[in-house]
Amino acid sequence: MVIPDRNQSSDVMFILLGFSEYPELQVPLFLLFFTIYAVTVVGNVGMIVIIRINTKLHTPMYFFLKHLSFVDFCYSTIATPKLLENLVVEDRSISIKGCITQFSIGITCVITEMIMLAAMGYDRFVAIGYPLLYTVFMSPKRCALLVTVAYSWGITSSVVLTYSLLVLSFCETKIINNFVCEYSVFLSASCSDTHFSEIMVFIFANLIAFCTFISILISYLFIFVTIFKMHSASGRYKAFSTCASHLTAVTIFYGTIVFLYSIPNSKNSWLVVKVGSVFYIVVIPMLNPLIYSLRNNDVKETFRKIMDHKIISH
Questions:
Q1: pTM of the model
Q2: Domain coverage including residue 211
Q3: The domain that contains 150 carries what CATH number?
Q4: CA quadruple 15, 18, 22, 23: dihedral positive or negative?
Q5: In the chain, how many domains are there?
């Protein structure tokens, strides 16, 4: 493992090209991404507020959703403002420290969200498989423990992966054909041995993604078995409806990850990678609160009351 020259690495700048190869689309893309980001902020912050003020939503599922909304807000905020800035300024550079900070917070949010989605899958399994024992299995203490585990693993993984970047050395300014600082960016820009870093990302990123996905898969396997054993059609419909929002969110989240991993590593694939990254980083944090709010009458009713109160106040 090579110990980097700190003075040399600290002077290195990355240039995030983003969508600069399409100058005629800079303004339309800025307006589009700004709108998405505004909806993301309002949707996730609004969801947190609604869950806090509506006692009907003080359930384990919405306890997890409140934290999921917080993670989505943080994840979008760490990347989207820089994307918007790069669409309106000519200087698209970012310091090595700024890039590592963006990556560190981003990976914390991604891994935390993976574990949070797995915890929500377990919650749906208990709700459908053991409804009479639901309050026992999903007690406030256990819910708090699951959320603590999610944040702890996210932070621990981020610390380890960030350290694996700090031991690398960077010798020159690198042009990055993306809008966000991903792990592959640092590996391609490094002028030192990256073997240790590659092992770390494989262990902490891929293993956690695989384990959480398998956990969700097992939860839904038991859920579907339980549902198909029900004799009542209305009971089956109610059970499916109970987990529909979470299943939709999981499908979009992991579907995008699989899509990005399946793209061949070639020059022509960079545009597809960037579009996929936009969906993963910018669009999904906007979709989650919409997915859960559109299917819940209590959320919609609370939102209407808040809006009516604001209108009356003015």
A1: 0.86
A2: 6-313
A3: 1.20.1070.10
A4: negative
A5: 1
